[in-house]
Specification:
By secondary structure, the protein is an alpha/beta fold. It has 10 helices and 13 strands. The protein has a domain of 195 residues: NAD(P)-binding Rossmann-like Domain (Rossmann fold), CATH 3.40.50.
Length: 292
């Protein structure tokens, strides 16, 4: 049966991107019926694009009725959450739960302290404004830490992380969650919905960027059995040289900052996230408990 023809599902994914590559297999395994949208309708999805400036309900008529609606794309500012929920409910009725995937980047009010689910956050952030609006409508927000898994490989992020040693000096704590655990979190929330609740979702670890950089520098590329092209060889060597340069900077910073060993002490890592609340509430814990 094509997803577009289903009139009712357990879970509707608005925006079948990276998260859905982990979520859909778990939904199938758990026999949870689902439908998913993309802007083009590729790969057996429903074509749908949310226009926050439009009050036209027609695009929502193509969507099935769902017990839980998951929004994977960011909503921003005032009005967008009310619009998308209102148009959907006007079309399919009020009996549905809403989950918004957000970012832990809003928890930046106390740079040297711990942030938990109930901690202060940047209420003026455009994504936080939309999330608060959804919470007021009874929705739930899962604020996710650094996403990895599949095509998202943290060691490849170094060029975007910093350009020089001074950039590396500023890097302190970082938090991650694997895509498989994001999917498990969504399914847990679908099964036991938390009305008007914001959760922090991470793997219950605090990572030290300096420590990770040192670890990345020792990794070697896995080569397939096929002959390697000259372009691929050059790229692999450039990547290796880049990681070694970053490692050298960390070593120099350890001397300059008086850091005797890695990871650094918690007190030196700045903002840290406490993600125990969500996992404890649902009685599950991260399956990927350490960044590989």
């Amino acid at each position: 049966m094509l997803r577009e023809t289903m009139s009712e599902v357990d879970l509707l994914i608005l925006g079948a991107g990276w998260t859905s590559t982990f979520l859909i297999p778990q939904l199938k395994s758990a026999n949870i019926t689902y439908a998913a949208t993309t802007t083009t309708g590729h790969d057996n999805t429903i074509p749908f694009k949310f226009d926050p400036s439009s009050g036209d309900p027609e695009p929502f008529t193509r969507l099935p009725k769902a017990h839980t609606v998951l929004i994977t794309f960011p909503l921003k500012g005032h009005g967008q959450s009310k619009t998308i929920v209102g148009l959907y409910r006007n079309t399919h009725g009020p009996k549905n739960h809403w989950i918004q995937l957000g970012s832990t980047g809003i928890f930046n009010q106390l740079p040297d302290a711990w942030s938990g689910d109930g901690s202060d956050y940047d209420t003026k952030d455009v994504r936080a404004i939309a999330e608060d609006e959804l919470l007021a409508l009874g929705g739930c927000v899962l604020n996710l830490s650094g996403l990895y898994g599949g095509a998202r490989v943290p060691r490849t992020w170094l060029p975007r992380l910093a350009q020089n040693k001074e950039d590396v000096r500023k890097r302190n704590a970082v938090h991650f969650v694997h895509g498989e655990d994001v999917a498990r979190a969504v399914i847990a929330e679908h099964g036991r919905f938390s009305e008007s609740k914001r959760w922090i979702v991470a793997d219950c670890r605090v990572y030290d960027w300096w420590d990770l950089i040192m670890s990345f520098s020792s990794m070697t590329e896995e080569k397939s059995g096929e002959a390697e092209s000259e372009e691929a060889r050059v790229k692999r060597e450039e990547d290796r040289a880049m990681r070694q340069q970053f490692s050298k900077w960390v070593g120099e910073l350890m001397i300059e900052e008086g850091v005797r060993a890695l990871p650094r002490e918690m007190s030196r890592l700045g903002r840290k996230l406490d993600s125990r609340g969500f996992w404890n509430h649902h009685g599950i814990w991260p399956r990927h408990q350490r960044l590989a």
